[in-house]
Design brief:
Length: about 475
Amino acid sequence: MVPGTKRKFACLAMGILYRMVTAMKKFWKSVFLPVLLAAALTACSAQADSLSFQPASSVPAADPEPSPHSASLPESSTPAPEAEASGEIQRTLSCGAAVNAVVSCPGSVDFSSLSSYSGALHSFDPEAVKNVLLGEGEIPCQKDETAAGSLIPGAVYHFFTGEDGQSLMVQGETVTYDKDGLYSSVAPWLHLDKAGGLYNGDLFPADKDLPFASRQQGYEELRQVLGKLGVEVSSQYDCYAVEESALQKAEQRLEETSPAEMPEEGGAAGRDALEAVSSEAEAGEAALAEVPADEDAGAVPSEAEGAPVKELPAERNAEPESRECYFYRLYTDIQGVPVTAHENGSVDKGTYLPGATIEALYAADGLHSLHISCVFDAGENQTLAQALDLEGALNKLDELYQQGVLEDAVEVQEIALEYVPVADASRVEVELAPAWRFGVLRTRTYPGKSNPQETVLVPDYEQTMIHALTGEEILLDQGSIL
């Protein structure tokens, strides 16, 4: 290990651990992982990943056009209730499932001639990314040709450390940039995903401009940066205003609730996971504690033998002066339809894809963190064909639920038309298929552990995807990772 970077690599490892665990949200949904990792992450330079986010009311760029996150609905072959025209739908399916959902679909979609596209996983050039985010000067880089974690076979892990404490990791389809640790101080307290069981999106408004800049100003700067990286994003985005008072409320909420207070079934899983992650966090802290202070502040030799050494800063601020910022989630799209940020596929069959991620923190002095992963570039479109409109998709969902006994209370709360990468033998070359995604709240009933005569209700927020061209369900099987 190159002197002076050992601590930064240990911190980055903790950040990657945080990303891996949050990606498995169905397993960890009742676990207070961010509380455990916050102490370790705030001392680290690596950017931590947030959970995948339930889309809020998206913000259009100036002169908005029909968007993937707008409330307009496609024309339906069956006359829809009046409420559907405003982007909301309320009804009960014949299987008994309730539909009380906000619908996101561009009004310009022609369901009589929709197409899939070939897709290729976007691979980033480490040197080009470094030049955009850190500058074109000579910057120390650590490489690892054996590091796992990329969907691209043989992708080399690159870690850059700037003199001012900035850090950058590039490996294949993934870019993680952190300016000064602000993300690790903010991200553990953001729970904007209803599937996580710790939802606190009510604390972080999606329609508020902060004093230092408008949401649109931040978006425009981010769009330019992403364009230089070869990623073109939609004019629609989600933006959450993060203020210190809201973060303190979020911290208080999490501290006041423990896994032991959860329902029996959820609480047991939560406590087991809590112990496992606690052990990982303690191990990480122990590893950091073993790094000698003089080594952490040591000199970094260049790759050239005998070249003069370059000093790195001994420490970076563990806590930023201000945590006021915007959290952005941006999207790529195909003909105005967003590419999904939700996972699908099978882990055991090697077809699992985690969903496209473009997330950033923007504060008064500009970009503070950026995470990009699993973004696909659309290629040629395939044969145009008749596709399911909203009514057709609801009918398919109804049929799907009727195949079994629907014992749980089911409520469809979100419906969106999206392009979904579907993998077969390769996760680098995929089919980008139009699909209807249903966000479903399923309330499961269990007998109480202490008193089997009592029932315990456990909410479970899940995603169901229906291929708009074939009518088949796009399955998610997390298999052995659970």
